[in-house]
Specification:
This protein is mainly beta. It is built from one helix and seven strands; from the N terminus they run E-E-E-E-H-E-E-E.
């Protein structure tokens, strides 16, 4: 979860931008997905984990924190 701090009356919000593969727990930093995320019109992308080869869904929540999940666990209604 990100953190909000107040410095001299200014509000600064720091977002959590690193993600962890839910399958193998490999940690990826923003440079792993940033360029592709900026090109995405939906704000949702999929990347393959370099360690376990699972497809990971990546997006951000309303606080600006990065969120990821395994594509194979998605449910379609």
């Amino acid at each position: 979860m990100g953190k909000t701090i107040i410095i001299n009356g200014a509000i600064i919000t720091l977002a959590k931008t690193d993600i962890q593969c839910p399958e193998c727990k490999t940690i990826y930093f923003e440079d792993f997905y940033y360029k592709q995320m900026m090109k995405s019109s939906s704000g949702l992308i999929y990347k393959k984990c370099k360690q376990c080869n699972e497809k990971i869904g990546i997006t951000t929540n309303m606080m600006g924190d990065s969120v990821c999940w395994l594509k194979k666990n998605e449910r379609h209604n």
